[in-house]
Design brief:
heterodimer, A: mainly alpha, two-stranded antiparallel ribbon, 3% strand, B: alpha/beta, four-stranded antiparallel beta sheet, 10 strands
């Protein structure tokens, strides 16, 4: 089998396996996995910038929140239906990522981390400041009748899982196509050696901006879906914690691998889930695992799999 | 006709005048060697030509157009190619991808045409059988050859080579000389080079830079005979 057909078989296989799990998983894990798939979409968006372009953003919660509030607020205050609200969320994230990208990409390295973090903090404070509309920290619930998308009731657990899977599959395929495209390969070249890429005649700023906009829009799509699927919009999702989480998921799962975000998100979710059964200090367990991975599997789980067993893995 | 000219091109770093008022003309199709002692300002000079370093004053004219204010990537897109003095390849990408990236930027080649041209470019420098290896796994000399292949692959109007033979073996230098000679006619080449054997074997014309200024220009035989050049560069042996 060629690398191309192996890649196709693996990713279609993963999607089919997730579909199979829909029929066999007990309720608790079924709900968990739906959440993991939506958050993996967010992680895949983050991975485009961090894993493939080599830019460390600490402000992706802003894009996730832009999607979530873009859809939530239009439902709550403008009477949008779920479909229009979803679109409003994605468009909000697109616009905000274009603006933040155009400004933040004038910096690089540590300065980029700080600038993106500051933009995200400003976004979070804005949500709190306009508490009258956003209900601040407390957040607000999207009522069940507002969560019907093209006749599908998203509050139903079964529908929720299947829609989450659809979003996950679509994002997976888009990311896969994107990283294999000419544009995606230039991003990898920028990650590997920015000056060389520039001296091959590539407009680095334009490529980085493209990556940030696609990444931010996918993150916003995840945010909008999360609000509609789980029925809650809250300022927690705009905090720095939600900028750090995709970084951890991607690092654990394997930066610059297409399946890494799913593996990392699932791993981290279940790690916290299981360890919190035994201790309230579950973050210590997560911390130890992160240290171990950094010591023994620097490229994350899928990065290590690629290095040892499957060199063709995208 | 001159493919490249500079008028009063200067660059200062603080109080140091690295390149001072250089008027330079490079006719289309010529292989020009730029020589001079360490610190003469050669790399700064070509850095200003391709846009990696901003000029303090003066102008750069490329292909009839003033490019002084144009950013580096656009100058490359206009037909310059630059190979680095310190090898700068994509160490964790395959040789094939290293060269393909150089070709795809032009945007006029299909994937199949790129694959074919990549194989061709690698064969030119004798690396065709290692197309799948990672750039970083090559020996230093082979990395230099890859760097040259990346430059050639862009099919530039002007190819700027910054000390290309540094670290090459005698055999590889012989192949390099052949490669340069095989390109004459189609490509104008500006070559910064310390190895005088390479300069004498490849260059049509030589410019000598010293203390940021042009000390002498002429055909290889004239330069070799020039007392001023010998004093500044070749030593007073």
């Amino acid at each position: 089998m060629s690398a191309r057909s192996k890649t196709l078989a693996l990713h279609v296989g993963v999607i089919l396996a997730l579909l199979l799990l829909h029929f066999v998983l007990p309720t608790y894990h079924h709900g968990n996995l739906a959440r993991i798939m939506v958050l993996s979409v967010y992680a895949m968006g983050f991975n485009l910038v961090f894993g493939y372009t080599g830019l460390l953003s600490l402000g992706h919660a802003l894009f996730f929140a832009a999607g979530m509030y873009g859809s939530g607020l239009t439902i709550a205050h403008l009477g949008f239906g779920a479909e229009a609200a979803f679109l409003a969320g994605v468009v909000s994230a697109f616009i905000i990522s274009a603006i933040v990208g155009a400004l933040a990409l004038r910096t690089a390295g540590v300065a980029l981390m700080i600038v993106t973090l500051m933009f995200a903090q400003a976004g979070w404070y804005t949500i709190l400041y306009f508490g009258e509309y956003t209900r601040g920290d407390e957040g607000f619930v999207i009522q069940r009748p507002d969560r019907v998308f093209w006749g599908i009731d998203l509050s139903d657990a079964s529908n929720r899982y299947l829609v989450a899977l659809l979003l996950f599959a679509a994002t997976l395929i888009i990311t896969l196509k994107f990283v294999e495209s000419r544009f995606g390969r230039v991003l990898v070249a920028i990650r590997e050696n920015e000056e060389r890429a520039r001296m091959l005649g590539y407009d680095i700023f334009r490529y980085k901006l493209g990556a940030v906009i696609l990444s931010g829009t996918i993150s916003g799509l995840a945010g909008a879906s999360y609000g509609l699927l789980f029925g809650y919009v809250g300022a927690t999702f705009a905090t720095v914690q939600y900028s750090i989480l995709p970084l951890l998921w991607v690092l654990l799962g394997g930066a610059g691998t297409v399946l890494g975000p799913l593996v990392g998100t699932a791993f981290m979710t279940y790690l916290i889930d299981k360890s919190s059964e035994y201790t309230a200090a579950y973050m210590i367990v997560a911390g130890v695992v992160l240290v171990l991975l950094t010591l023994f599997a620097r490229q994350g789980i899928m990065g290590e799999v690629r290095r040892r067993f499957l060199p063709w893995l995208p | 006709m001159n493919l490249l000219s500079t008028k009063g091109l200067s660059r200062s770093f603080g109080g140091l005048r690295a390149v001072s008022e250089v008027d330079f003309d490079l006719p289309t199709g010529q292989v020009r060697a730029l020589i001079g002692p360490n610190g003469a300002g050669k790399t700064t000079f070509v850095g200003m030509l391709c846009g990696r370093i901003a000029a303090s004053s003066g102008r750069v004219i490329f292909n009839g157009q003033d490019v002084t204010a144009i950013p580096a990537h656009q100058r490359i897109a206009m037909g310059m190619a630059y190979t680095f003095q310190i090898t700068s390849i994509f160490g964790r990408l395959s040789l094939h991808e290293n060269v393909a990236l150089a070709m795809r930027r032009r945007g006029d080649l299909s994937d199949a045409a790129v694959d074919e041209a990549v194989t061709d470019a690698l064969r030119h420098v004798g690396l065709a059988d290692r197309a799948g290896s990672m750039g970083g796994d090559l020996s230093y000399g082979h990395q230099r050859l890859l760097e040259i292949a990346v430059g050639v692959a862009q099919r530039p109007k002007l190819l700027i080579l910054d000390e290309p033979t540094q670290g090459l073996t005698d055999g590889e230098i012989g192949e390099f000389n052949q490669l340069i000679r095989s390109m004459t006619g189609n490509t104008t080449i500006l070559l910064i080079e310390h190895n005088m054997d390479v300069v004498m074997a490849t260059a049509d014309y030589i410019t000598v830079l010293n203390f940021g200024q042009i000390l002498a220009e002429g055909a290889p035989a004239e330069i070799r005979a020039s007392a001023a050049v010998q004093a500044a560069y070749l030593g007073k042996a």
